[in-house]
Amino acid sequence: MRKESVRTKRDDAAHALRNARDRDDRSIELHLFSDASMVGYCAVAYLRLILPDNSIKVNFLCARSRVAPLKITSLPRLELCGAVLLSDLAEFLISNLSCIAQPKVFAWCDSTIVLGWLKSSPHRWKTFVANRTSHIQNIIPGECWHHVSSLDNPADPGSRGLLPAEMVGCQLWWNGPVWLSCPSSDWPTQVIATLAEKLPEEKHVVAVNTTTKTDNFLLTLMERCSSLSKIKNVVAYVLRFVAGCRKLNQHRRLPISMLEKQTALHTLARQVQLEHFPDVLRSLHTGSLPAKPYRKLAPFIGEGDLIRVGGRLRHSDLVYDAKHPILLPCKSRLSELIVQHLHQENLHPGYRTLHALIANQFWIMSPRTVIYRVISRCLKCFRARPKSINSFMADLPTFRIQQMKAFTTAGVDYAGPFFVTARRHRGAKTFKAYICLFVCAATKAIHLELVSDLTAEAFLAALRRFVARRGTCIRLFSDQGTNFVGAYRQLNEYAQMAGETLGIEWLFNPPAAPNFNGLSEAGVKSAKTHLKRVIGDQVLTFEELYTLVTQIESILNSRPLCPLGSDPNDLQPLTPGHFLTLSPASNEIPNVDFQNVPNGRLSRWALLQKMMQHFWKRWSLEYLHTLQQRAKWTTPTANIPLNTVVLIKNDQQPPWCWKLGRIIQTHPGLDGVVRVVTVRTAQGELQRPVTKICPLPSEM
Fold first, then answer.
1. CA separation, residue 682 to residues 46, 318, 659, 685, 689 (Å)
2. Which runs of E-coded beta strand occur in 138-252?
3. The domain spanning residue 480 has which CATH number?
C-alpha cells in the first residue's frame, strides 16, 4: 500500500509538471530543507506547483542522508555538511528538470550559524567552513537561503532517524510543513539576529606593521661570497652596466679590465668606510681634526672620496697607493677578504711578508688580529704545521696510590739498542742488546734486565727472571709492541693448556701513546740518556754491560721520592730502595773513587766502576732536580666532540701526508676527560690518543 502511495505522488508531480510546461516557470518552485544531528544529516526536496486556479500543490521529490563521521565534530559543522548535501541534491534536480522547466529554488535551514556563514564571503572563515560555503554558494546563492524552525523542518526526522512504522504516518516528511501549501505571504519571516553577531570559525587576521631595513647590496655581497676576485668581478659588471645605461661605456662585451677591477675594489672600500668611519669622514669634510686613534695617521680624503693615510712618506719614490694606503677597519669583512686573497695569491706567506704585501695598498687598523685570524683558518697552512690537543692530566689511578708490595703493579718498556760483544778478543763481532725496564707503579722502584733481542721469547725470559727475584706481579701495563702482545698471547695459551686463568692483568696503552705509560718512559729516560753518555764509544761484553746495568739499577733505586730539605736535622729522604732492601741504597760493597784516575791505568772492572760513578754524578746533578714538579698538561681543555674531522699525526711522514679521518667514538676517563678516541679513515678505524690528532680549523 505504501509503495502505491509513493508511486501515486510521483505520478501526480509528473502530471502537474507536464501541464505546467507551457506556462510561466514562476509557477514551479523547488523547496529543499536540510538538518543535522550528532547521528547524521539529511536533505529533502519538495516540488511546489501553483495551478491556474491559484491552488497550491506540494509533492515530495526525493531525499538524501549521510551518517555523521566517527570523528567528533561540532553541530554547526554537521549542519554545514547537511547544507552541502542539500546543494548537491539541488544541482542534481535542476539538471534533470531543465528539460521541462526552470524552477525557482528555495533553500531552508534551521541553523542560524550556517545561514550566517552562507550569507557572507567565504574568505572570512577557516579552511573547513570556507571550502564548503564556497561550494554551496556556487550552486545556490546566499539570497536563496531562508530560516525555518526545527519543528517545521521536514529534514529533522531524516537526520535523527525514524522506525518504518513511524515513517509511514509522518506527514511532515511526506508533505512538508503546513505553511508550504499556503501563499508566500504566510511563510515564516523570522529575523536572524545572529547574523550581525560574531560567528564561530571566523579567521582572525592580525595586521602587523613592520619596517624592514634594506641591506646594502655591496655589504651583503661581501658577506655572501668568500672570494674577493668574484666580488670584484660582480661589482665591475654592475658598474659597467650603470655606465652603459648612461651611454658612457661602448665596450660592453669586452672582458673585465684591471682598471675596472681596481675601481670595483675602491667602491667596496668606500662603502666600508661609510659604514665604519662616519665620524672620520664628517671631521675631514668639516676641516676639523679626527679622533686620537686616527689623528696620528694624518688621514685625508683622496680621489674617489676615499680616506687615505697621509703619513710621512709623501716625498718618497713609492707608488701613490703605497705612500697613501686606503684606511680600512679591523672588524670588516673586506679586510678579511683582502688578507685572504693576498695570502692565497702569494703562496701562503707568514705574518711579516703578508703584512708588507697588504701595506702596499691598504692600511688596516690592528692588522695582526686580522692576519692571524685568516691564517688560523687556512687549511693548507694548518696541514703544513698542525697542532694537536693536550688534555688535562688525569688523576692517579687506584694502583698508583694503594698500599701494596713493590712490583705488584708494574710498567714495562725497552731501552736501547746497545752494542756488545760476546768476549774480548781481536776481530770480535758485535751485536745489539737491549735493557728491559720494569718500574713499580706505587713505589717507583726500577728493575733492569738485559736482553739480547726484541722477540717475545726473550721478553718472556726477562719476565721470568723479574718474577723470580721480585715476586709475583698481578698487573702489567705496556705499549702495544709486538714482543709484548706476543708474550701476552703465549702466556694465555699456556694458561689454557694448564686449565687455569692467567694471573697477570695486562693493560695495553693505545697505539702511539707513550704518555699513558709515563712511569716507564721516565725510567727509560733516567737510565738511557746518561748511560749512553757514560759508555760513549766503549763496546762492552754482555757480562760487563749486565753488571753495569744492575749497578745503575741500584743508583736509580736510591733516588729520593720527595724534595730534599736544607735543614741538617731532617730525616733521611725516602727512596725506592727502602721498599726493596729497607735501606736507601742496595749497593753495600765498598768502592774506590776512580773519577780522577786516567782510563789507561784502570783494569776492565775498575773501568766499569768509574762508569757507574760517572753516571751517578751526572744523574744527580742534571736530572734529579727536575723531578720536583710537573711542567705540562696543567690547563683544562674542552673534550673533543664526535664527528670532528682531524688529521692523524704520524712522525714518520710529512704533515701533508697525514691521514684524514673523522672521530666516531670517544673514550673518557674516570674524571670525564677524553684522552683516547676512535677515528674512522678511508683505510679503516684507528684508536689514537688526543695528543696524536689535530682537528682542522673549520672544526674548532
1. 81, 53, 8, 8, 19
2. 145-147
3. 3.30.420.10
Distance CA 532, CA 524 (A): 12
Radius of gyration from C-alpha coordinates of the chain: 50
> How distant is the alpha carbon of residue 142 from its chain centre?
57
- Do residues 264 and 370 both lie within one domain? yes
Name the amino acid, one letter, at 488: Y
Q: Are residues 452 and 557 in the same domain?
A: yes
Query: Residue 518 belongs to what domain range?
Result: 406-563+572-627
pTM here is 0.51
**Cell numbers found for residue 596:** 780522577
Q: How far is CA 227 from the centre of its chain?
A: 25
- Residue 397 located in a structural domain: no
Residue 270 and residue 306 in contact, taking contact as beta carbons nearer than 8 Å: yes
Amino acid letter, 74? S
Which long-range contacts does 161-167 make (Cβ < 8 Å, 24+ apart)?
A: 161/39, 161/40
Indicate if 522 and 617 belong to the same structural domain: yes
Joined grid coordinates for residue 125: 572563515
Q: What DSSP state is assigned to residue 92?
A: H
Total domains present in the chain: 4
Please answer whether residues 556 and 527 qualify as being in contact, where contact means their C-beta atoms are separated by less than 8 angstroms. yes
Tell me the one-letter amino acid at 375.
I
- Phi and psi at 397, nearest 5°, equal -70, 170
Residue at 324 is within a domain? yes
Q: Is 607 in the same domain as 481? A: yes
In sequence order, the 6+-apart residues with CB closer than 8 A to the CB of 463 are 412, 487
CATH number at residue 691: 2.30.30
Do 172 and 33 fall into the same domain?
yes
Q: Residues 58-91: pLDDT tens digits?
A: 999 999 999 999 888 899 999 999 999 999 999 9
Query: What does residue 414 show for φ and ψ, rounded to 5 degrees?
Result: -110, 150
* Residue 109 contacts residue 152 (beta carbons within 8 Å): no
Q: What is the overall mean pLDDT for the chain?
A: 82
Overall size of the chain counted in residues:
700
Let me know: does 434 contact 451? Beta carbons within 8 Å.
Answer: yes
As a dihedral over the C-alpha atoms of residue 96, residue 100, residue 106, residue 108, rounded to 10 degrees, the angle is: -40
Residue 581 phi, psi dihedral angles, 5° rounding: -125, 10
Cβ atoms of 269 and 332 closer than 8 Å: no
CATH of the domain at 12: 3.30.420
- Bridge partners (DSSP) listed for residue 326: 308, 362
Where is 370: in which H helix or E strand?
helix 367-376
Q: Whole-angstrom Cα distance, residue 60 to residue 158?
A: 14
Distance CA 449, CA 438 (A): 8
Per-residue confidence (pLDDT) for residue 288, from 0 to 100: 84
Residue 482 placed within a domain: yes
Say whether both 238 and 186 belong to one domain: no
Residue 208 covered by a domain: no
Please state, as a whole number, how many other Cβ atoms lie within 10 Å of the Cβ of residue 537.
5
pLDDT per residue as tens digits for the range 571-617: 566 677 767 775 555 444 545 565 666 665 566 556 666 666 665 56
